Amino acid sequence: MKDKNDTIEEKKDETKTEAKTGTKTEAKTGTKTEVKEEAKTEAKDEAKEAGKTGRRLTGKRVCLSMIGALLIAGLGVIRAPLLLSELSPAAWAVLLLVPLAVLFPFFLLVRIPERSVFRFSKCFYCIVAPTIPAFLLSALYDFNQTADYTKDFFGSFLLRWVSVWVLGMLVVYALLRLFEYIGKRCAGRDTLSVRQLYDLAVMYTPQKKLRAKKREGKGKWVAAGLCILMVALGVFIFVVALFLFNVYSNMEFEAILFTIRFAEGGLAAEDIIAGTEYTLLFVVIAGFISYNLIKCFRNDSYVVADSDRNGEYTLVMTGKKRAIHIVLSAVLMVACFTFFALQTNFLHYMSMKSDKSTIYEDHYVKPDASVLTFPEKKRNLIFIYLESYETTYTSREKGGSQDQDYLPELTALAGEKDSVHFSNTDKLGGASVFVPSITYTQGSTVAQTSGISLNTLIFPQNGEVKYPTMIRLEDILHDNGYNQLYIEGSKGEFSMYNRYVARYDDSKLYDRKALVDQGYASEEEDYIWKWGIEDRKLFDVTKELITEASKEDKPFFVTMYTMDTHSFECGHRCKLCDETIGSDYLAAVNCTSRQTAEFVDWVKQQPFYENTTVILVGDHLGNQKTSLVDIDEGYVRTTYNCFINPAKTPVRTKDRSFSSLDMFPTTLSAIGVEIKGDRLGLGTDLFSDTKTLSEELGEEEYKQQLEKESDYYDRILCPD
After folding, report:
1. What is the largest CA-CA distance in the chain?
2. Are 674 and 653 in contact (CB under 8 A)?
3. Which residues are bridge partners to 675 per DSSP?
């Protein structure tokens, strides 16, 4: 009986013990649940408080909102497709008040995104928001119609201007709410993808560091250094490509290489400023990524403050994550190089330079006295380089690609009885064969005055930057007693033009500095613009210098470069431009046509004209991307040419295939020089019946031969 009673008592004790234990467990579980609920409640309260803070209108917020609105509105006004100097006070007021009326309430009333590890929303609110209106500006406006928008400000411009800011900030607001929603959804989940997203946020956003566990060993620095090297190289290439896209848009790599290498201090101030800005961009991007790569490779774990995750978040740096960073660094480098190559046609350049050409060995004719015979009475020569001037801008019925003729005076001049015009068709045309080395002013100048194509290498011989030592037009005319004047409104240092010409006592360069120093121009006048002296002033100076040269008992050679049609600035409007033409570039083209024709008329009225030949030549094609001029698909673009009062009659002027190199012998032939064999350098006299090399070899073969590397060029024309 006793055993049974003991057994019953033991069972009762066990039951009591289990009951007590269950009660304790339930109490503990309840406590944990309560803690979690309290944490959630606190988080919600903090979120509500943050929301109230984000909406609270304090004096500080009002001031910051106004400053932000003014800055973004100012940037928008600067970018607006308007001639700001011609706007009325009322238009100015509306132009500035519209963005302020939208931006100020936006920054004042729209809640600032909450702060957490995932800070993209806040960055978007503060930094990225201004870019949306910028995109809309490009989408809603035709930047080729600046003059039209200025004249019809309250009509065609204003409605779009309002739309830019209203739609822009609506898009910004929608994106802010979207990012906030995504952030909240992510915060409530603990999946692998969410953790990866948070890891990226921790890695690549500014954080408040709490503590870190550093990684042991020196191998971490090798991997980190490799990644940083690839990132720095990739970002550098990308930033260079961006700079070239904005400053030298759509240029071939060889042309860019020459322009940068031969700049020698002649770059415009705007380009130097742009270069500085892009350098800072490189430092910021590469530095930011490198800093975070070091954080990844240096630490095993990294703990930061996080209001959404119990006050902190731990990022564990695994070997897999480091491997991914190495792969992504390599991908970034390759992607940036690909972008650069596509932007500059770099691979084509390398492909051409890896092959050899024999065009110089087979066809080059040294332009010395043995093949040249000058007339007894030497003719004066005036040679005008028309910047980026194409026959493209005449009407379709006359051979161009426009609805109307924007160079009517020069079109008419090419058809006059005392003029000769060489064309690739039976209408107005010109040189239609181009290689990268003659698609910029100085490359074209070398081709037209020496009959060769510049070969610019990435690594020149002995690292020296210099022009080839070939015989040039300047040398030939000097040997035959010519006074020579070279006139340009820009800096002579640009492209080292001051080293290419004016190498003799009877040969002088009048660039921007020389003209100002000698009193022909002033830096204080309104004819000074980005690249130097406007054409309207330069034509007047040229007349003055020609008049002085004509009084001497020697033949003269005068070269002048126009500049207002520089296509990278989309043309330059001067006081003489036709205001009814909406396109800035076409207005400049039209203005140059009129001014050049007036200059030719002036020359014809001078006593020396009877013994003077005037040559007008477009130096190269314009940049279609930056000039913003529509050109018919499939249209063959050509540079303008016109020989006025030449000493010879041409055999054939129509349906010719030629390039800038052919201008060299043709120029000498135009002033009566007899050329043995009709060729000089790699050029052919177009007045003769001899085929040009592009006609003889075929255009494609001719271009490839000019672009390839040449032993003769390196050994004979550019000796060590």
Report:
1. 154
2. no
3. 372
